[in-house]
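seq as requested:
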Amino acid sequence: MPLDQIVIRDLENSWESLTLSLQAIARWQGVEWHYRTINTALGLSFMVSAPREEAADLSWWMTFGRDAFLIETGALFGVKISPLGPPWPTAVVPNTPEGFDYFQQQIKPRIQVCLAHNHPVLVWRGWPDYREYLWGIVTTEHPSELGLGGSTMWSHGQTVPLASPPHRFYLVEEMHPRQPANDELLRFCVRNIRCILNDRIERPFGIVTGAAACQRWLEWLTQEPSSSNSSQANGHYQMARFVTYNLESAQRFIEHYRDGLHQDLRPYLDALHSAVQGTINALATSRVLKMVEGLYATEDGRESLAAGVRATKDFLLAQTKTIDHLAARLGV
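struct tokens:
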């Protein structure tokens, strides 16, 4: 099938653009993958993250490092995914004139070869406007300055151009879709989730995770607000929505697979489900923009929001303890 048949479909309360991208590629091959399953396999259902070094608005912290387990997850489901050449040189910044030239000379030709052979390319960043930090799929050449376009989240199924050079890119080489057995899937997910909750993501992915990311979130929330209170309040609100939407997909995953697993494993999943629900409850106020804006305007209000993040950190530590015990039980 031609690449222009690949279209990312938005799902309500499902904001992981990498997961939606993988769903779109599978659908292109006639296979339907459930969001809850792919999102949990990637580890994203349990990921609270913050960029390790890059200065980015809090609104987009939860878009960094999503590909930490992309290649392994693809392999689990029968998809061969590989990096499209070496990463950006340290001395070259993508969103600069030098970065634009490097992309045109070194990266774009590789993408064009992939497109010529009917291989989609997954990319992070470079999409226009409010989609800048999203993952998407390059599927076509495009009459725009960068010369490439494709599909990404929040685009209503339309082909959109790349507006700036992407920061990360992967070739989807082969697809022989498979559905792993429940036990195999659980072991894979637990291994990845354990790395995330214990802040053990490899350094090149540029993130801290779990309770360490919550601590960064607290530090951001308790700093002196700038003149743009509305923007900062929106950052907190969007971070909370990213986190809780992912946790809701974690709950759906647990509820779907729990009864198909050995009964000795079910208490671990029940405890995990309870800790996840506690995290969602702790951030309930932070998911209502009008309430966040009102609270963020005062010191006492910001302290109230911070209390929710502290509770989130505690529940993440509870999740970590349960996952560590389950990993030991599974031998992963």
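The mean pLDDT is 95.
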